Amino acid sequence: MGETRSIRTSDGGTMSAYVARPGRSPAPAVVVIQEIFGVNKVMRDITDGLAAQGYVAVCPDLFWRIEPGIDITDQSEAEWKKAFELFNAFDVDKGVQDIAATVADIRGDSTCNGKVGAVGFCLGGQLAYLTATRTDADASVSYYGVGIENRLGEAGKIGKPLLMHIAEEDQFVPKPAQAQIIGALKDHPQVTIHTYPGRDHALARVGGEHYHEGDARTAGERTLAFFRQHLG
After folding, report:
1. Structural domain total, the chain
2. What angle, 0 to 180 degrees and rounded to 10, lies between the N-to-C axes of helices 123-134 and 92-107?
3. Tens digits of per-residue pLDDT, 161-215?
4. Integer angstrom CA distances of residue 34 from 17, 37, 188
5. Domain of residue 101, CATH code
6. Known active-site residue 194
7. pLDDT in tens, 218-231
8. Burial of 56 (0-12, 13-18, 19+ CB in 10 A)
9. Which of 53, 79, 127, 203 has a Cα-to-Cα distance from 119 of 20 to 30 A?
10. 105 is catalytic
11. Domain encompassing residue 192
């Protein structure tokens, strides 16, 4: 079971976060960046899973400025409607600032050894990319990030390793956008890209319509190997 942590943001607000800790410390930390459904069971399970792998894992409530405590699923039309309303109201720039505050907060925690990575999904996949361009996180992982093609002007700011998972049939990242992203980043010395043929958006969301156990496992193994290499 995890715990709730309060994090002070750069503009003086207070944001809650779900934290799961490993059996041993100090350990490297990973910031888990939510999808559009809030800090729900899927995100908490990912956070718990990273703790089981030896990381201090923390999932901040990035929708706190709109509505704190969002915890919905992808299982009903009403929840999807709510999720897209939150997505459309979300301030990406403020969100990245809140991620930077989370990185700084957990880096200073007594159970963290000073190394901090990030992993994000969907909206969080875009935010993970921006974490690589705008924060001092030591390594970032983006799962099927939405809207990255509109942020490629920041690619020159990537100074730490970034791993990207792209679903080739992603309905929210169409093939022209994928081509832009891959074309701009494939030769970047800090970027590693894996694509997943035949897979749609959210291939790794357990219980989701497009979940694929085999490719989710492959992506997860690649992510853990990446974190072990760059965080320890």
Report:
1. 1
2. 70
3. 999 999 999 999 999 999 999 999 999 999 999 999 999 999 999 999 999 999 9
4. 11, 7, 26
5. 3.40.50.1820
6. no
7. 999 999 999 999 99
8. buried
9. 79
10. no
11. 3-231
